[in-house]
Amino acid sequence: MSSVSVVIPCYRYGRFLADCVRSALDEQEGLDVRVLIIDDASPDDSADTARALAASDPRIEVRVHGRNRGHIATYNEGLLEWADGDYTVLLSADDRLVPGALVRAAALLDAHPEVGFCYGRPLRFRDGGPLPRARTRSTGFAVYPGRWWLERRFAEGTGCITSPEVVVRTGLQREVGGYDPALPHTGDIEMWMRLAAHADVGYVRGADQAYYRVHGANMSVTDFGGQLDDLRQRRAAFEAVLGRCGDRLPDAGRLSRTVRVRLARSALRRACRAYDRGRTDRVPVEELVDFARECVPSVEALPEYRGLRLRRRVGARAMPYLQPLVLSAVAERGREWLWWRSWKRRGL
């Protein structure tokens, strides 16, 4: 029987803890699962809730910080100091697993020792709303060569994983180390790529693997100004991977150029969308262009820059009405649709 260590960091999420823990312990039949709840000095009753849960189930342990250490230190405490199962899961207290998710992931990892971590499709739901119906029957597994999967991340300049749907081989987690404190918002992207530099990547097909709760306290980027910070953090994550795993990536120079072009194009596309949607007063267009130039000094040669130049000529007021006539705006919508279809089918 495979064993799974589930680390649940918690800060002011006590109201979600019972459901989160139940999804890990009571909905994963056939596995030896243990849970560690780490309360990071929550000012509410989260610690008391965690202790009550532990008192009712010997499979649950609790650690309570006397002072707030931050989410990265909390992650690393659980993953590197406590986890000792065959596989490890980092599950935020406000998320939950789909029934059987750990069983499906463990089956993949048991069958493919060359795989360092696996993931599947997450389901997003609004806090306070009903859980969407989840698919719980897998149609099989996919195993992607780690280097190939990592190169695809560099080619796209972004991750394809939310987080709660990931199960990692514990030995590999210890080998590559913990999350990077210098990457508070993109440490997960860097971690998945670091793992992929050392082992292959598995994907659970057909079934949904986790629920990701969407609410106002999520650390993901939602404001327009935060879009620029997101791009900068992503660039830092890719640079960190090259710094740590350069000896495993003989074509690191090419990968660096590839991701810089991709991030520059992403910044310019966001600037273009600001014109298309009449949001130039809220989106930092000039700062996005400056970021693109930092990534690619010859930014004027990029097609997105030519599209932005056209939009500037049309003007911020007229562009939302003329958007259907601008070829690059139509192409952007098509590109987003194709990416969405690929992600739904292959998780890439």
SSE map:
Elements: E1 3-10, H1 14-25, E2 32-39, H2 46-56, E3 60-64, H3 71-82, E4 87-90, E5 96-97, H4 101-111, E6 115-126, E7 140-144, H5 146-156, E8 167-169, H6 170-176, H7 187-196, E9 200-214, H8 226-245, H9 252-276, H10 285-295, H11 303-314, H12 319-322, H13 327-346
Parallel strand pairs: 1-2, 1-4, 2-3, 6-9
Antiparallel strand pairs: 4-8, 5-9, 6-8, 7-9
Helix pairs in contact: 1-2, 5-7, 5-9, 7-8, 8-9, 9-10, 9-11
How would you characterize the overall build of this protein?
The chain is an alpha/beta fold and 348 residues long. 48% of the residues lie in helices and 18% in strands. Strands 1, 2, 3, 4, 5, 6, 7, 8 and 9 form a 9-stranded mixed β-sheet that branches. α5 runs antiparallel to α7 (187-196), α5 packs parallel to α9 (252-276) and α9 (252-276) packs antiparallel against α10. The radius of gyration is 21 Å and the shape is globular. The two termini are 30 Å apart. The model has no long low-confidence stretch (mean pLDDT 91).
Tell me the quaternary state.
single chain
Q: Indicate the percent of residues in helices.
A: 40-55%
The helix count comes to 13
Tertiary shape: globular
- SSE topology string: EHEHEHEEHEEHEHHEHHHHHH
Poorly predicted parts: none
CA distance, first residue to last residue: 30 Å
Q: Round the Cα radius of gyration to an integer and report it.
A: 21 Å
